[in-house]
Amino acid sequence: MAENSAGKTSNVELDWAKVGEKWRKKWSEGRIFESETQPHTKKYFLTVAYPYPNSPQHVGHGRTYTLADVHARYKRMKGYNVLFPMGFHYTGTPIVSMSQRIKTNDLELIETFEQIYKIPDEVISSFKEPKKIADFFHEEIKQGMNEMGYSIDWRREFTTIDMAYSKFISWQFRNLRKKGLIVQGSHPVGWCPQDQNPVSQHDTIGDIEPELIEYVLVKFKFEEQYIIPTATLRPETIFGVTNLWINPNIKYVIALVNNEKWIITKDAAKKLEFLNLNVSIISEIHGSDLIGKSVFDQLRKRHIPIFPASFVDPNNGTGIVMSVPAHSPYDYQALIDLRKDSVTLTKYDMTVNIVPITVIHTDTFPSIGLSPAEFIVSSYSITNQNDPKLEEATNKLYSDEFHNGVLLPEIDIIGNLSVLKARDTIREKIINQGIGTTMYELKNAVKCRCGTSCVVKLLTNQWFINYGDENWKKLAYELIKNMEILPEEIRQEFANVIDWLKERACARKSGLGTKLPWDNEWIIESLADSVIYMAYYTLSNYIRNNIDPQNSKDKVSADNLSDSFFDYVLLGKNDRDLVAKDSKISIQLLDKIRNEFLYFYPVDSRHSGRDLVPNHLAFFIFNHAAIFTKDKWPKQIVVNGSVLMEGKKMSKSFGNIIPLRHAIEEYGADPIRLTMLASAEILQDSDFSIDLVKGIRSKLFEIYRAICTHKSVFTIIHNSTECNELEDLWISSRIQHIILETTTAIEKFRIREALHNILYLMDNDLQWYHKRKLAKNKSIRNIYLKEFFETRIKLLSPFASVRKFGK
């Protein structure tokens, strides 16, 4: 219920949709979000990851964009000329894969569109054409952004399959190639066997980045003619191997692998084929047939037994594991349990007389007659393999040995070396001797958007961006050293990513996007054409596609764009007159475009989700360091966590997806915005719930009602002769304190704290002030109440985009 200025309750509730529509119309008519160069006004260029239009946005998508909009509005209030643009990312295979699923009448996808997003059947039928999907959701997402009140300069809008944008990306890639940063060769990548394409985060269901791990396969000889390979991430522990573990309950295969007969799982055989090994399966063998037998360790020249272990996962590595009980709590506990298992020992007619062999020393686990694994298992009071503390103990031991471990002096070849150096040394030795090799595997289970499980493939003649280039890494480190990263605690994640990034596939054979300029069989992939597009925003409003040639004077046509144009505008290279002539534009327009880039660049703040740190944000850093001069390097990155729905990840399997536009229609934009921001600090996952939305909406209405009740205070003119009492000075001081505290919180992106100040602490102050004034029979309808309400409205303005007072 709303109240009028006389304090009487009206029978009409606040119509959030109508208020939002009113202010969006005013903003549009006033063109207040359209940013032009203003040489005497300080600028602030802020961007956020452009959306991928393969579905409508749900409330989980809104947090990053809302945070960026809050930032943009805040900076405008501070007097900056803010540029906040938006584009749409069509590139890649997901839209094409979705189109294929529609063509095959995929009921799951069609039901999602019908039941969750309420898309009409005739529209879904048109989705057999990939661009129809992208165009439809492009407009749907754009409308949702407008309804959320985002303060975007839409004149700069583009898609990544526009001709002009493709020319811009071609320029970027030719630059990287000239610098020797794009190479062709063999490298492992995440791969979809169905689509026959490399996959990255944007190509997978759930936007999961495929994480590759490299195993060392240690080859143990079995009965002279066979090889039993075991996959390990810790080859330096080979000197502590006491036995192998094989699962007696599964079937293995004997496969001819590059002219060697290997005993592995069927799943491992398939994986090895994708790594370009010649693999043919000869026969099957039960795991139980191998138990109690022995293999020959070709490095140490000794035989070791094979023991049964049902915990061995046939889908992991080769399905056979080497046991290092001195340094693996799992192996140690498994041996203890096996010794007690009289049934199994009797079944396989074997005894277990294994003594752990310690090969690594750390100060954390001093030598007191116990191996490190035995020591930590004992200290955690672990009694069997099902004890959940075993995982924690393993992680602690592995971490300590990796960072602080030194190989014992008596260990051949690698004695006295650190674990890291020993690992590299022994890996090189066993591979060179032919008693080991490497195997790549996905660390996480990933499915392509077509529904196929992904694998690791060793691609040959593939184009890669070489993020492993050491000189390039140095530039990337220099860039982040001089960049503000919010929150600061995530800085180390960026450093870690820069450290481990290596070659990355940058093109594929299918999908939407820009063709590789020098090899048109390939299409540049979606995490390669989305790393410097921020620069394109500064000139996109000048570029028009498919214009009438007779009216093309002083308009930039995509047909006339060349590398020399981008070199001049973005890098200041080439002769201005020649560039203008080649581009068929006037020198004045060319200078205007160049000056706009110089005015707005570099990016002052880049907003993105935490899930993009290991890919998009890292590539954003690398590519800016490679292409632009240091004065054009980005100044800030802001990273936020994701959004949960009542403690759970948003997923259609949980039935908890709420389309963003539906939520706005039901509850209003401002309650949705504040709910996304108020439940957690920026790096934490925000827990969204309808109850919280309703609570926030009630709070906003309470503020609105209070202002309506005391509306007459806005006509008060300050009287300098008015007597100021102690409580008046106190409330005025509190208002200034809240302004300072809230401003500091916003600057550091402690958004939850800022909102807590505005929504709740200010109420406490008002209640205290009201109570003290009533005690003296004094009215609070005075200049201080006016100051209080005006301050609250202004402080709330960046967060609540539709409001009764102010712009």
What's the layout of helices and strands?
Elements: H1 16-30, E1 43-48, H2 62-77, E2 81-83, H3 94-103, H4 107-116, H5 121-126, H6 130-147, H7 163-178, E3 182-192, E4 197-198, E5 212-222, E6 226-232, E7 243-246, E8 251-257, E9 260-264, H8 266-274, E10 279-286, E11 294-297, E12 302-308, E13 320-323, H9 329-340, H10 342-347, E14 360-361, H11 372-379, H12 389-404, E15 406-407, H13 419-432, E16 436-442, E17 455-466, H14 470-481, E18 484-486, H15 491-500, E19 503-505, E20 507-508, E21 523-524, H16 533-540, E22 543-544, E23 556-557, H17 563-571, H18 576-583, H19 587-600, E24 605-609, H20 613-627, E25 636-640, E26 643-645, E27 648-649, H21 660-667, H22 669-678, E28 686-688, H23 690-709, H24 726-747, H25 751-775, H26 783-796
Parallel strand pairs: 1-2, 1-24, 6-9, 7-12, 18-25, 22-23, 24-25, 26-28
Antiparallel strand pairs: 3-4, 3-17, 5-6, 5-11, 5-16, 7-13, 8-9, 8-10, 11-12, 14-15, 17-19, 20-21, 26-27
Helix pairs in contact: 3-6, 9-11, 11-12, 14-15, 14-20, 15-20, 18-19, 21-22, 22-23, 24-25, 24-26, 25-26
